[in-house]
Amino acid sequence: MSVDYLLGRPAALCQSCGMSLVMDSDKGTRKDGSRSEEYCAFCFQHGAFTQDLTMEELIEHNLQDLSEWNQAAGLQLTEQEARAQLMEFLPTLKRWKA
What pLDDT does 98 receive? Predict the structure, then answer.
C-alpha cells in the first residue's frame, strides 16, 4: 500500500491511462528500478512507456473492455459515451497534454 492510501489521501492517478495508483505494485518503474509516482505498471516499465501509441489508440484499446469497465463501476455507458468521456479526461493527464 502507498503511504497516501494509508493516510486516507486520494490515490494518485496514472498520468497515461488514469488508473488509480493505490498499491506500490500498481506503479511502474523508472530506469533504476524505483517505483514511478506518475505512471502505472501497465503503462511504464524500466523508465519507458510499454506501448508506443496515440491517445486515440489508447481510447480504442480501453473500449475493448467496456463491458467489464461498466460492470466494475456500476455504469451502463454506451461506446459513444465512454469514448466521449475518455476524450475529455485523457488530455488532462501529463502524457497527453499538448
Answer: 72
